[in-house]
Design a protein that fits this description.
The chain is mainly beta. Helices cover 3% and strands 46% of the residues. Strands 4, 5, 6, 7, 8, 9, 10, 11, 12, 13 and 14 form an eleven-stranded mixed beta sheet that branches. A hairpin with a 2-residue loop joins strand 8 and strand 9. The N terminus is likely disordered.
Length: 183
């Protein structure tokens, strides 16, 4: 696995060669030898991978003046420039429940030629999480807050992470998660 290596030579050097299977990413002056890939996961203060079907903690808090729930998300990428566009979406029951914003971010060096990003708060479009038994929150949040009302735990929940670099190299990861409230 080549990972990311500095550009082999300046642009005027005709002797520069790029190893087979690698590409020169002009946007970041790197030679990238891995296929673009991304893995979504948990990400409050570091990236934590989650196995497919694993749990992800849902938090409750003030969402800009109202009530609501959120998940701290992160990502780990390979084969991409370090400055990327990251997007997280959420499917509930096979339907797109959250079309998340696209963020332009710098990813930090991670282990084994990976790049990582964390600390993104994904706001959930639900007003009341059914496992949340805190009466203060239950009274504070109307059932229709957040647009979708109470979250139906019988539905499958999928976190979708998409990354694109400035050379239009893209990868998407779909991760079935079991949301657990309220840490």
């Amino acid at each position: 696995m080549c990972g990311c290596t500095p550009q082999l030579a300046d642009d005027d050097d005709d002797d520069a060669t790029i190893p087979d299977g690698c590409v020169e990413a002009g946007a970041c002056d790197l030679v990238l030898c891995d296929e673009p890939s991304i893995q979504g996961g948990y990400g409050f203060d570091s990236f934590v991978p989650i196995d497919d079907g694993g749990t992800i903690n849902i938090g409750w808090g003030d969402q800009g003046g109202g009530c609501g729930y959120h998940i701290w998300v992160g990502a780990e990428a390979r084969g991409l420039c370090p400055i990327v566009f990251l997007k997280w979406d959420l499917e509930i029951g096979g339907e797109l429940a959250l079309d998340g914003p696209t963020r332009h971010v710098g990813m930090s060096a991670g282990p084994d030629d990976t790049r990582q990003f964390w600390g993104e708060r994904l706001l959930l479009p639900v007003g009341l999480y059914p496992d949340d038994t805190d009466p203060d929150r239950t009274e504070f949040c109307p059932d229709d807050a957040g647009g979708l009302g109470p979250l139906d735990l019988a539905e499958d929940v999928v976190l979708i992470t998409t990354v694109t670099d400035h050379d239009d190299r893209t990868a998407t990861h779909r991760l079935a998660v079991d949301p657990v409230c309220c840490e």
